Amino acid sequence: MGIAALVMAPIVVLAGLAAQGSGGLWSHLATNVLPTALHDTILLLLGVGILVSAIGTGTAWLVSAYEFPGRRALSWALLLPLSVPTYIIAYTYLDILHPIGPVQTALRAVLGIASPRDFRLPDIRSMGGCILLLSFVLYPYVYLTTRAMFQTQAAGLIEAARVLGTRKVALFFRVALPLAHPAIAVGVSLALMEALNDIGASEFLGVRTLSVSIYTTWITRSDLPGAAQIALVMLLVVIMLVMAERWARRHRRYAASTKRSHPLKRVILKGPAAAGAIVLCVIPIVLGFVGPAVYLVSESIKRVRFGGISSSIIRELLNTITVSFIATLAVVCLGLVVAYAARLERGRRLSAISLRVASLGYAIPGTVLAIGMLPLITGLDAVLDDIVQSIWNVPLRLWLLGTGSGLVIAYTVRFMAISIGGIEAGFTRVPASLDDASRTLGKSAGSTLRQVHFPLIRPAVAAAALLVFVDVMKELPVTLLLRPLNFETLATHLYGEAARGTYEEAAIAALLIVAAGIIPVVVLGRADQKT
Questions:
Q1: How many domains does the chain have?
Q2: How far, in whole angstroms, is CA 88 from its chain's centroid?
Q3: Among 89, 84, 74, 243, which Cα is nearest to 143's?
Q4: What CA–CA distance (Å, rounded) separates 91 from 501?
Q5: How far does CA 388 lie from the centroid of its chain?
Q6: How far is Cα of residue 71 from the mean position of the Cα atoms in its chain?
Q7: 397 with 434, same domain?
Q8: pLDDT 10s digits, 266-323
Q9: Does one domain contain both 288 and 324?
């Protein structure tokens, strides 16, 4: 219950902050800020939703239903864009597609045109550019969920349709696609949550979303109540997304269970059909991962040759690793407590509600969470200061906010859902009979967890810790808004350099973040090789 209360507290505080704003502030926001922010946010979400659905579902169908050269490698390589945060994809393509960047310079050389004034591609700093770039790094959310559906639950019905003579195109649109609607809905909702949480890419590309508006209202205009009011609107958008995802999955039930399901038999493609399938799978990999990765490696090598690796990058890497490790330890330990408590009290409604509430943090965008957490952290700082002064007569001041401890608390709230979900999945594989046997032998709940459960769920705990660690490393909005003074991580360093337009200075930081992000993708890829 305490952990669930910690997750809910920022939302309650957010409402209180918003109420501090005057009536005139509401009318100002409604007239001058919210129309543009809502318009851009809704347009961005619609565009990203359509594109990730098309790319994720199409590639999932190709690698699940057909056999062609390189399919096995492509099936896990399609996950690689997950390792590229949204703000890095924007950062890299702003330089790659710059009028004097490598792509346009090469095109002018081929066409025999000397001046950038005589030929230039459409500006990537646009709504269309933002939709396109975000879609090519977020489509794996749809790909993962949809591919799993095609390979298990849908396999029997798809093969039955093939036996009845259904043609390839009709098979996809009339059988496979309707069956995949629930999986697509889940994947799209996750992708849209990430797009809504984004602050770096949208700002770099000139799209004024709700998240960007919250940041500028708080930091640039020093208007915390105004930022809180915009954050409440953003929270309503999140609730609408969750409701839309539930609505899209309404009345969808499957008679077959995964235990009785069998893999989908793939149709062998040859000639032009196989070449077409390869091209369609390679394009999102190249645009979403290979292009940015090659650029970052190239720019990092240039930077190292020119000036070496700066001490600031090393310091920021150590800051990133330290805060990520501490936050991961806190998140995994608390997630283990919540998941184990739910197992001990299974069947009780209060326990189920607490579990759901404790998992809500991941659905709250980073900018919204940061606003709700700030008064909580400063309030705790004030209490600690009073206690220390009353005992030792020494001022503690902003200890939590000034040391990064407040940042760890915010990470804990934000990523608790990942830890709980992964560990809970591990517990489901442990038979309840082991709990009964342990109790019969007189073991306490703590002893049962240490001696029986933990050795069995260790892989699930390790996987959850890995995912949390990488997500904390990549997190930009929370870090940007709650970090201590003069405390830079790789993500905030990259943001600062990109905002100043000094892209070459941020290449090493971006490359390190992407390299860390590849680790969970490799883990997922190894799991894919077993299917």
A1: 2
A2: 13
A3: 74
A4: 9
A5: 39
A6: 26
A7: yes
A8: 888 999 999 999 999 999 999 999 999 999 999 899 888 887 787 888 899 999 999 9
A9: no
- 445 vs 38, higher pLDDT: 38
Q: Which residue has the higher pLDDT, 53 or 521?
A: 53
* Residue 509 within any structural domain of the chain: no
- Decide which of 308, 324, 356 is a domain's last residue: 308
Token pair 């649109």 is at which residue?
A: 173
**Assigned domain for 508 exists:** no
Structure token digits, residue 57:
């579902």
Helix (H) or strand (E) holding 273: helix 271-285
Q: Select from 308, 334, 365 the last residue of a domain.
A: 308
Q: Are residues 291 and 183 in the same domain?
A: yes
Q: Report in angstroms the alpha-carbon separations of 199 from 140, 231, 366, 467.
A: 20, 13, 9, 21
Tokens 């709230």 — which residue? 413
Which is it for the CA torsion 76, 77, 79, 80, positive or negative? positive
The pTM score is: 0.84
Whether residue 260 lies inside any domain: the answer is yes
Q: What is the pLDDT of residues 342-398, one digit of tens each?
A: 888 776 766 667 667 776 777 788 888 888 888 888 888 888 888 888 888 777 777
Total residues belonging to the chain = 531
Residue 510 in tokens: 């971006």
Q: Are 250 and 189 contained in the same domain?
A: yes
Contacts 24+ apart (CB under 8 A), 498-505: 498/87, 498/90, 498/91, 498/94, 498/200, 498/204, 499/203, 499/204, 503/91, 503/94, 503/95, 503/299, 504/299, 504/302, 504/303, 505/303
The mean pLDDT of the chain is 84
Question: Domain range spanning residue 178?
Answer: 10-308
% of the chain with per-residue pLDDT over 90: 27
**Dist CA 375 CA 400 (whole Å):** 12
Q: Are residues 281 and 328 in the same domain?
A: no
Q: How confident is the model at residue 42 (pLDDT cuts 50, 70, 90)?
A: very high
Question: Could you tell me if 298 and 314 lie in one domain?
Answer: no
Residues 160 and 191 in one domain: yes
301 and 430, same domain (yes or no):
no
Residue scoring higher pLDDT (256 or 418): 418
